[in-house]
Design brief:
about 500 residues; alpha+beta; 6-stranded mixed beta sheet; 10 helices
């Protein structure tokens, strides 16, 4: 009987497991993988139909980018590789700052210049006159490389961080590939060789990564810097070669530009005059790259047009573009239906961030088309506030300008009763579950039949036992009466029975 009770209990548990397992498993939805990264703004200069003439520049390759949105406002040969000259040093400084950030080195580490500090240097190479055996801190070397464009300083940094200049150059190329650069090949850490190649767009990717470190702009934006006396040289006063920001620099105050900051100059005869710089005005923060500009030693002009080209580029942008907030961060753009929701069965969709980017002044507000893309067309509760649900695409004349992730504006709770009923229906619709339930029902029916048969047989057996016991008692009684008569001398009369 105990075995029968155990079997009954086991079968009931199996039945309940088959019915309720889907509900229990769905309490914590399985991770479906990370959502796609924020696609960010597209690379489109102006909406269709908006005619906007670019500035007249001498530069052979140009890129102008809004740093907040990533929108490219102007480009010329921006994806074609060219010799970058000393713009190469941005990568060298970036790798040094990344090593500091990882804790591998410190800005105050004292570095001893090796015999390779003059590698590749010519008589006319930009130098801070470092000699083998001289000791400088990594901080001082970075200022020498970025402010005064010291090629020898880059050699010392590369040899120290890379355990040899060739190893460091290999890391420069690896990092460029990691940043998405496709037109870049470095052969030295300072840009002296004409075999160094990169494009304005690749330089933008490298510079954007470097600008993620506050000390990068602090160094590059310094108009001057005094290198403390070393074991070999006295104090050295460095002047920034970027004439857009340095009134007392080697080129005088004639190129100063309001709102300009950093970043790096470059020149070789093969590369022409180059400049990476930034400028801020009217709520816009722009980064400009000019390569192959005209200047002395290339023509009969005395104007260094990497500076004037950059100034023209910024003037053109500030005069023709205005920063627009197309989508506000708190703006609910649409609603999405949510199945199995408790109460309101919809959730608001709002951007994870405000969408701002520069548009030409003659583009009227409200001309944009906002298209919403949901990652999951069949949303199911629960949904937590802030959950990434899709992307809002901002288009003008069918061309995408920007995008932002869409998140849930509020939480939507799960209606557990509806959830339970749905999963019961879904479970019963599955062939495997139906088969399991059928088997369980057959087993239960068989069990009930066995129990019924057992009870019938037991009842019959007990009845037979009662009848047998009655017959036994009657026989015993008769025998007792016969014995009593025999003792009393009473003759046995069969007729009495």
């Amino acid at each position: 009987m105990k075995q029968s009770r155990f079997l009954s209990f086991f079968l009931i548990l199996c039945l309940l497991a088959a019915l309720f397992a889907p509900f229990a498993l769905a309490e914590e939805p399985a991770e479906t993988g990370e959502y796609p990264e924020d696609p960010g703004p597209s690379v489109t200069p102006t909406p269709e139909g908006v005619k906007l003439e670019g500035p007249e520049l001498s530069a052979q390759a140009v890129l102008l980018v809004d740093l907040e949105s990533g929108t490219i406002l102007y480009q010329l040969n921006s994806s074609y590789p060219r010799s970058p000259a000393s713009l190469t040093k941005v990568m060298t400084v970036l790798l040094a700052l990344e090593a500091v950030d990882r804790g591998e080195v410190g800005l105050d580490d004292v570095i001893t210049a090796g015999l390779d500090c003059q590698n590749g240097m010519g008589e006319d190479s930009s130098s801070v006159y470092i000699v083998a055996g001289e000791q400088l801190t990594l901080r001082d070397l970075l200022y020498c490389a970025a402010v005064s464009s010291g090629n020898d300083a880059c050699n010392v940094i590369a040899s120290y961080l890379g355990n040899g200049i060739p190893n460091f150059v290999d890391r420069m190329n690896e990092r460029a590939a990691e940043l998405g650069c496709t037109m870049t090949r470095f052969v030295d850490p300072n840009g002296l060789s004409n075999d160094n190649l990169t494009s304005p767009y690749d330089l933008y990717l490298i510079t954007r990564a470097a600008m993620g470190y506050p000390s990068f702009m602090e160094i590059c934006d310094s108009t001057s810097y005094n290198v403390p006396a070393t074991n070999v040289n006295p104090v050295r006063e460095l002047k920034n070669s970027n004439a857009l920001i340095s009134p007392d620099g080697i080129y005088g105050p004639g190129y100063l530009y309001e709102g300009a900051h950093g970043i790096k100059t470059g020149y070789t005869r093969a590369a022409g005059y180059c400049l990476i710089s930034t400028a801020e005005r009217d709520d816009m923060h722009l980064l400009g790259i000019v390569m192959g500009s005209d200047g002395p030693y290339l023509s009969d002009t005395e104007e260094r047009k990497n500076f004037s080209d950059s100034a023209k580029l910024y003037d053109w942008a500030f005069a023709n573009f205005t920063m627009r907030t197309v989508i506000a961060e708190d703006e609910v753009l649409d609603f999405a239906d949510v199945a199995l929701a408790e109460g309101d069965a919809r959730v608001g969709l709002k951007p994870q961030r405000s969408v701002r980017f520069p548009l030409p002044n003659n583009v009227e507000p409200g001309q944009e088309d906002i298209r919403i893309e949901l990652f999951d067309q069949n949303l199911t509760a629960p949904v937590e506030a802030g959950t990434v649900l899709g992307v809002a695409h901002v288009l003008y004349d069918g061309r995408e300008f920007a995008s932002a992730r869409l998140v849930a504006s509020g939480s939507v709770d799960l209606n557990r009763w509806e959830y339970f009923k749905q999963h019961i229906r879904e479970s019963l619709a599955k062939p495997a579950v139906l088969t399991v339930i059928l088997v369980i029902l057959v087993l239960v029916a068989a069990y009930l039949a066995l129990v019924t048969r057992y009870r019938l047989l037991r009842r019959k057996h007990l009845k037979q036992r009662r009848l047998a016991e009655q017959r036994r008692k009657e026989l015993a009684r008769q025998r007792a009466e016969e014995a009593a008569r025999a003792e009393n001398g009473t003759p046995f009369d069969k007729d009495l029975f």
